[in-house]
Amino acid sequence: xxxxxxxxxPERLDEVLDLLSDRGEKGCVFSGGTDLFVDIRAGMTTPDYxxxxxxxxxxxxxxxxxxxxxxxxxxxxxxxLIQHEAVKKHYSILAIAGRELASxxxxxxATVVGNVVTASPCGDMASPLLCLDAEAVILSNKGSRNILxxxxxxxxxxxxxxxxxxVEKIIVPSRMIDATGGYKKLKRxxxxxxxxxxxxxxxxxxxxxxxxxxxxxxxxxxPDFPPSASVEEVQAAAQQAISPIDDVRCSREYRAFMVNVFxxxxxxxxx
Amino acid sequence: MVRITVRVNGKEYTREVVESxxxxxxxxxxxxxxxxxxxxxxxxxxxxxxxxxxxxVNSCLILAAETDGSTIETIEGEAKNGKLSRMQExxxxxxxxxxxxxxPGMIMTIKDLLRRKPKPSRDEIIDGIEGNFCRCxxxxxxxxxxxxxxxxxxxxxxxxxxx
Lengths: 271, 163
Known about the structure:
The complex is a heterodimer.
Chain A: E1 6-8, H1 13-23, E2 27-30, H2 36-41, E3 49-52, E4 62-65, E5 69-73, H3 78-83, H4 85-90, H5 92-99, H6 104-107, H7 112-118, H8 126-131, E6 135-140, E7 143-148, H9 149-152, E8 153-155, E9 158-159, E10 166-172, E11 180-186, E12 197-203, E13 208-213, E14 220-221, H10 231-241, H11 252-268
Helix pairs in contact in A: 10-11
Chain B: E1 2-8, E2 11-17, H1 23-30, E3 49-52, E4 55-58, E5 71-73, H2 86-93, H3 103-116, H4 122-128, H5 140-149
Parallel strand pairs in B: 1-5
Antiparallel strand pairs in B: 1-2, 3-4, 3-5
């Protein structure tokens, strides 16, 4: 690495919270490291120390309960999520979207929570989790708070997380287990790539819910539609809600156009 | 500095390492195992793929310090007593190696894929190597090598017969 830092691997959660409370702004917590070490190498972040969370047993928990819903600990990798039987059965949209995240090697390390906390506009986990009304459980020395992911992400790589806080887990409510859905992602090459634009659709008995990534500073959750909604109606609402930009990967116009294409494909069940 | 002990290709190593050193640089510079390559250094090209505790990973995005107590497999563990592994042999037979830079990572990815899916379909192979870039072969020879090593290639298919 170009930048030098200390490596800390606590084994207890309270050690992490004490560390963050004392000098949280100087360090970075990580589990997979697939975003952090790219940023450090590029000189975009220069922490004095990094805190490896993988030594904390409780953060590896991935569990499903018909009452509590799905609980995804901070160290649960994307591959662990998408291979989990309850996820495939009850939250298929997460398995479909997770499969689109980077490559097998990255998915073996990258965590679901990390993908959300990084808060990149093109993260693959945020939009399906927004559709599912997922909440983050946030800990600090002062206690804990729960926050809907739609309130948690505030801008490009920015969230409401304070330097003394840690996202312990993400909870997906059990009322969503009847939902089906899909996820369409535009990328420049077959195989792994950052999303140029992507759309998630969650279908429930009485509602259709869409979330769009890489088309605004944060993932955008559209208001709920009835199942009878027309493609044009959803497309019009989507175009109102997004504010895509031109960048190295694609033009603003192309992003807006592909949002409409993906909405139509998702609603018609097309490939 | 932090002291770590790892088992690489069956051999145990204990070393003091700089805390910010990646697993990739540890393997190459501290252990002189230079088979594993650095391409992009950002988890995109897969040239640095090794198998860490049974999982294919990008060694450029992992700190050596994180791997204390781990078992690591690299390309150097493939050939035994001067004899290529079956996968290496298949790469050779099918001209799946041109410049060779992606080959160590590619072979480690495929080794992991075949442990999970002993007989992957062509599409599963393509999906399986999505995290490994090859800029020479156009992938076709690599896919044929995997099909061959898993007994799925007809007699006149692939490049084996033109050798």
